[in-house]
Amino acid sequence: MKGKKIIALFMALAMTLTVAACGNSEGGAKDTKAPDSPKATEATEAKETPAADDTQAPEESKSDDAKETEASGGAITYNVTWEDTADIVVLYPSMGPIPNGLQAVEDAMNEITEEQINTHVTLKMIEVGNYDQQVNLMTSSNEQLDLMITMPGGPASLSTMASQNQLTDITDMIEEYAPNALAGVGDLIKGNQINGRTLAFPTYKGFVGGQYINMRTDVLEDLGLLDKALNMKSFAEFEEILEAVKNSEEWGHLAGITATDGHGAVLADSQNVCYAENFADCTFYDNLGNTQFAVSVSMDGTDEVMNTFETEGFRKNYEIVKRWYDKGYVYKDSATTKEMGTELIKSNVAFSHIATIEVGGEAAQDTNCGMDMTSVLITTKPITTSSLTKFTWAVPTTAKEPEAALTFLEMMFNDERIANLFTWGIEGTDYEVGDDGVAHFIEGNENPGYHGSSFLNANKFLVHPWQGDDPDINEFFKKTMDEATYSPYLGFSADTASVTDEVSAITNVIAEFQPQVLSGAADEATFQAFLDKLGTSGIDNIVSTYQEQLNTWLEATK
Fold this sequence. Notes:
The protein is of the alpha+beta class and 558 residues long. The chain has helices spanning 2-20, 102-116, 131-140, 158-163, 171-177, 179-185, 217-222, 226-231, 235-247, 312-326, 341-346, 364-369, 385-389, 402-414, 416-424, 473-482, 500-519, 524-536, 539-556; strands at residues 67-70, 77-80, 86-94, 119-127, 147-150, 193-194, 197-198, 201-202, 209-216, 273-274, 283-286, 295-298, 305-307, 352-358, 373-380, 392-394, 432-433, 439-440. It has 19 helices and 18 strands. The strands form six sheets. It has a five-stranded mixed β-sheet. A four-stranded antiparallel β-sheet has the order 10-11-12-13. The chain has a three-stranded antiparallel β-sheet with strand order 14-9-15. The relative contact order is 0.20.
C-alpha cells in the first residue's frame, strides 16, 4: 500500500543521511527567531560511514587505463578513463551580482581537479533573474555545457528541459562515474527519474523546508514590534506590522514586502502551499514533480490531478497578495525586477520577504540580507518529489564531456575542499573557519570576492556551517528528516513526451502572466486572462497525462 512505500523511503532517507553526515550544513537559530522555530537540540549519535573498501567504484566499471585518485578523506577512488585533460563547463546561478572572485575560485579548484580527476573546470555563473533566458540561449546554440543547476520552475527547470529533450540520460554513466554520490542519496534519486531513467541528481541536503517571514530586526526594534513579530500566528498580525512600517517616518521609504525570487513570488511556493489567514490552517498540494507547478494533487487522498492555477488554494493565495499590493505593502517592481528579495533588503529597498528555507537554516538570512533578520515560521512543508526537483545537477545534451562532468559531480559530493570552494570561496581570502568549525567573514572583509549558496551544493553536508549556525547542525537536520511528513506521491514523476508542445506553450504563458499574478499586480481581468490562455494552450491535456500516469503508478504501488 502507499504507507509501505513511504516507510521504505523514510528508512532510506535516514540511512542516506547517515552516509552523508560527514560535514556540516548552514543553519541554526538566534535569539530573534520565532519561539516555535525548530532549533538544533538533542543531537543524536552519528553512525559509522562505510569503510573505504565499501565505497570503491566497482572494478568492472574501470577501463584498463583508468586513473585512480583519492579524495582528501582517502576513501574515494575516482574512475578517470580519459588520457587527455577533459575540459568541462559548469553552470550555476548567482543569487546576487556575479562575484569578482570567481576566477580565483576556479583556479584554486583546478589545482585539485586537474591533478585528481584530470579535468579542467570552467565555472560559469549567471545572475538568477537572467538564468532561464541564458540557459535557453546556450542550449539552443549548442554551446558546450557539461553540468548545470536546474531551477525550480521555468525553461531551465528539470521537467521542462526533460520534456524538450535537453537533458542527457545519465542512468548508466552515474553508476560508473559517480557511484558514491548515487549510493549517498539512495532512493532519493527516484525523484529525478522519468520512466526509471535518471535525468538529474538532487542537491543533497535536509529536505524539510519551511515558509518563513523574514523581517529587518533593526526596524522591528525601532518600532517596538519585535515581540509582536516573534509571536505572530496570522497574516492579520503581519499586516499590522506592514502598516506600521508604511506609516513610519523613519522607515516609510521601505517597501513592506518584496518578491523573494526574481520572478514575482511574494508568497513563497504559493503553487503548492495553500496559505491561510491563520498560519496553523495552511495545507498543501503535491505538484508531482512538475517544476512548472502547473499540475497539483491534494494530499486528502482523492488522487485527483488538477490545474494548479484553477484550484481554490491558489486563488486564495492570489487574493492575499492582491490585498497587500492594493494596500501599498508590496514593492511595486516585484513583477519586473530580477533581483532576489535578499538583495533588495540589503539595498535598503524592502523591509521583508517570505522565503522557503531549510528548517534550521534561518541564520543564513543575516548573511544573505547583510543585516540582522528576524525569521518567523509560517508552516513546514511535507517532503514531495518537487522537494527533490527544486534544484538539481543535470548534464545537458550539449555536454562535450559528460563522463568528466559526472566525475566532477562525484568529487563535489565527496571532497570537502571542492564543496567549500564552491560555496564559500577560498579559505583565508574569502572566509575563515573558527575552532568550532564554523565559517565566517574575515574581519574587515565582509564583502569578499566570492560567496556562494550552500543549498546549490551537490552535498550540503560537506559545507562548513556559517556564522550564527550551530556547529552540530547536521544532527539537527537528521532529526528534522526523521520527523518529517512525506507526501504519499513521493517518487512519482511523469513522462511528458506526448505533450511536449503543450508544455512549451504553457511555459510561455506562465512566464508572461505569473510574475504579475504572484506579485499581486494583476487585476481580476488579468488573472482570468491567465487562466483562459492556459486553457487554450492545452493545460487540460497535461493534466490528463499526469492523471493517467498517476493512476498507473498508484496501482503499481498497492
